[in-house]
Amino acid sequence: MTDQRNHPEEQVLQDGDPETTGHSWDGIKEFNNPLPRWWLWCFYLTIIWGVAYSVLYPAWPGISGATAGVLGFSTRAQVAEEIDRFDALNADLRQQLTEVDLTTVTREDNPDLYNFAVQAGESTFTTWCSQCHGAGAAGVQAAGYPNLLDDDWLWGGTLEDIQATIAHGIRNEDDPDARWSEMTAFEGILADEEISQVVNYAMSLSDEDGDGVNAISQTYDEELASAGETIFLDNCAACHGDAGTGDRFLGAPNLTDAIWLYGGTPEAIEETVRHARFGVMPAWSLRLSEAEVNATAIYVHGLGGGE
Questions:
Q1: Distance CA 143, CA 299 (A)
Q2: Residue 195 lies in a domain
């Protein structure tokens, strides 16, 4: 019996078959079929087009740049032209945003300017602010970035207050008008026992029912809290007030509500008391135009937490 794998039958050519290339595998011969002429012309045209494109447009990369092309075309320049075109179209609205009383920019009183401000403000916020405050402006508590959707504002939540905070920033060295507050780091000033007592007292300030559980469902030691009241009044009340309700003018937070910038757990509060916090926000007036700052203030104010 013949093994066909070792002794394959040779392919029989028929009359009219084209010539072969001379290649043969397992008895199968390869026809030398020419490509259709239309296909060849298309192929040649793509070669010509590719060479022409590389001459006319940026194409070949180099160490520090690329060939510019005879036409000098640039997508970057094209985008810049489009930006300039839209800036020119919106120049009047931008100018109005720098001159108008921001409190009058409402949907009812000035719908065109209001719509432009909200759209421009959202775009600016997404580009420059969302990295810290989040795309939805809910903040990041673990990093101390405040939630802009609630009604808790250290330096005030009116439109003017928000605009000033955005323009000048917080605790930065670049703007002399930056919002500024600085909490004392009490490690080394208070004993460990005293820190524990004042931490528990701070937790107790939002316990309206007096059942040992505060506004964010954190349990505290009532005996330590009682002992911490005097320590609080002696060391903390100057900024946070005797009742712990804070002081907006000083940037001292309210300790009687359920909002904690860095977290309201015993561990987070102890970290704050021991080492203090010092969050910094840039002065955006040094990077953005006045119109962009004002538009962002209007957008943030309209998110729901503005006063």
A1: 23
A2: no
In a domain, 232, yes or no: no
Tell me the pLDDT of the chain (307 aa) as tens digits: 444 444 456 666 677 777 887 787 777 888 888 889 999 999 999 999 999 999 999 988 888 888 889 998 989 899 999 999 998 999 999 999 999 999 999 999 999 999 999 999 999 999 999 999 999 999 999 899 999 999 899 999 999 999 999 999 999 999 999 999 999 999 999 999 999 999 999 999 999 989 999 999 999 999 999 999 999 999 999 999 999 999 999 999 999 999 999 999 999 999 999 999 999 999 999 999 999 999 999 999 999 888 8
Helix (H) or strand (E) segment spanning residue 193: helix 192-204
- CATH number reported for the structural domain that contains residue 295 in this entry: 1.10.760.10
Number of domains in the chain: 1
* Contact assessment for residue 179 and residue 280, using Cβ atoms and an 8 Å cutoff: no
Does residue 7 lie within any of the structural domains? no
Q: Is residue 287 part of a domain?
A: yes
Helices and strands (H and E) in the chain: how many? 11, 2
pTM of structure: 0.77
Tokens coding 285? 């007036």
Q: Which domain holds residue 101?
A: 91-178+281-301
